[in-house]
Amino acid sequence: MRFPWGPGEVTDLRTVGDRVDTLTDLSEVADGPGARLRAARAQGEAFRREFPTTGTPDSVVTCDLITLPYPTRFGLFRASKALAPFLSITNRMLVIRWRESDGGRRVLLFEPSDHELGRYTPYFDTLSARTPGVIERRMLREHGTVPGHLARLGIAPEDVTHLMFDHLHTQDLRRWIGTTAPQADLGGQPRAAFPNAKVIVQRDELAAMADLHPLQRPWYQPAAYADVPPEAFLPIDGSVVLGPGVAVVKTPGHVFGNQSLVLNTSTGIWVSSENVIAAEALTPEHSALPGLAKWSRRWQQEVVLNANTIETTADQYNSVVLEKTLADRSQADPRFPQFFPSSELTGAWTNPGTGPTFVHGSLTHRKA
User: Fold this and answer.
1) Which sequence ranges form a coiled-coil region, renumbered to this chain (predicted)?
2) Confidence (pLDDT) at 32
3) What is the model's pTM?
4) The pLDDT value given to residue 13
5) What is the Cα–Cα distance from 273 to 47, expressed in whole angstroms?
6) How many helices (H) and strands (E) does the chain have?
7) What is the Cα 269 distance to its own chain's centre?
8) Which CATH superfamily is domain 18-352 in?
9) Exposed / middle / buried, residue 278 (Cβ in 10 Å: 0-12, 13-18, 19+)
10) 183 DSSP assignment
11) Other beta carbons within 10 Å of 31
């Protein structure tokens, strides 16, 4: 199908941020996945020491978008003993604001999912068609929309400078960044809701989306990118510091071009991505979820992955350990890290055995 870029054709797009030399491409470590794991820990510890010197953003606000069902076998990969085939996850958007050294204001939306269009992702579209409406309505709850939350916060659409996702699974960005041609399903040619915003994405993911592997196809909506303007994207290679206390760290595995948001706040360092769906998945020895602690002990694995895709599982494991190394411990319960899942496990009576031991619920920060 037609695509704005082909494999190897994204090198001329603009980039953003200051490269983090401490965090190198672990795929270049020659001695295999075990050596890469050790390198992930060492590099994470080094960046954790230097990152606070960049400062803190002005504010971070959490906005709930939607709670939806998700297969237990994906979200708690191999570890869960829950009888429920589905658990619930809540998708949330983070709104991060800061000023550059020249006084320029920046507004980053992390995970601004257009969940109305995201439902047409092949996997979720198929699941919806097979689920009776009465059950689907009980398991799916809409909390708010991206435009609605921004209006509540007093942020004008033209003030948004950056959009970012940990990866582009399920995402349809046409209403956010506009298109270069009319869209039949949208009733015309949508104007960009965020006319000044650029999408920060790993170059690896843009290349992969141009030539999807069959394992990837259930989770992407490639047709939604056929007519998006290429100049709306800011591809990066690896990890960068975007602003004071705001960084993007490359965390491949869940997808080839996965990335995590790292924030330095008044409570220390936070990390956010969908590599895992609960903070306790980083310290399963403290989890009361059925099976997790026992599974971790038996197989001597220190993290429980979110594994709806298994593009490079060992790399994802190493990336999660990097995230765990970067994050400070929660002030509410030091057994758990300040890892804020972009899709967080949420207890529901419909899903017995999947109620989380600990939830963050929100990530908030305001500069003193």
Assistant:
1) none
2) 82
3) 0.95
4) 53
5) 18
6) 10, 14
7) 16
8) Ribonuclease Z/Hydroxyacylglutathione hydrolase-like (3.60.15.10)
9) buried
10) B
11) 9
Amino acid, res. 355: G
Which residues of the chain carry a pLDDT beneath 70? 1-3, 5-15, 132-137
Backbone φ/ψ region at 314: left (φ over 0), alpha (ψ -120 to 50), beta: alpha
pLDDT digits (tens, 9 = 90+) for 132-191: 666 666 778 999 999 999 999 999 999 999 999 999 999 999 999 999 999 999 999 999
| One-letter amino acid of 274 | E
Crossing angle for the helix pair 33-50 and 313-326, nearest 10 degrees? Answer: 20
- Count Cβ atoms within 10 A of the Cβ of residue 122 and give its class: 0-12 exposed, 13-18 middle, 19 or more buried: middle
Helix, strand, coil percentages (3-state) for the chain, rounded to 5, are 30, 20, 50
The upper half-sphere exposure of residue 306, i.e. CA atoms within 13 Å in the direction of its Cβ, equals 25
Q: How far apart are CA 178 and CA 192, in angstroms?
A: 4
Tokens of 208: 């992969």
The structure tokens listed for 199 are 């999408």
The pLDDT tens digits of the residues spanning 57-75 come to 999 999 999 999 999 999 9
